Amino acid sequence: MNIIKQFENLITGWNEERKCGYCWKFIGAGRPDLFNMFQRIEETECCIYIGLFKIKFGTKYGIKSDGFTQKDYCYISFEGFIGIPSRLDTQFYNELGDTDQEKEESKWTILNSIKECLGCEFLETLCDDNGLYNPAEFSADQKLNYQDSNYDGWLIKGQYIY
What we know:
By secondary structure, the protein is α+β, with helices and mostly antiparallel strands.
């Protein structure tokens, strides 16, 4: 699986269909500091930016009943970020103002919208065409004011086994 190409194709499709009402931008940065250098931020649109950082692959071995090791499976994993540029003066939910409008404009509203849009089937949508790679794990941790653009979103981790 070419994980960068899989993400790029997925995000291109999401952008064309305006999935969940957003525009989508993929940044195949390879490292968080290179993701931070991305300059083509769409100020006029509410775009979600996705970057991949730590791509790893390897093999998991186990011990058979005869004491010898055998390959259980191979894996490819990634870490990255999914989120939008934000402002430092935006409240998280209701700590500065408690009206419905203030809550609707909060960081949590955006974070929750991205979470609902991705859903827990996120890795299943990224599966390869040959069916060789099976999703094994996906997690997302909330991240606020990330990098110079103060992105609000999710640090993601995923793994496929084959």
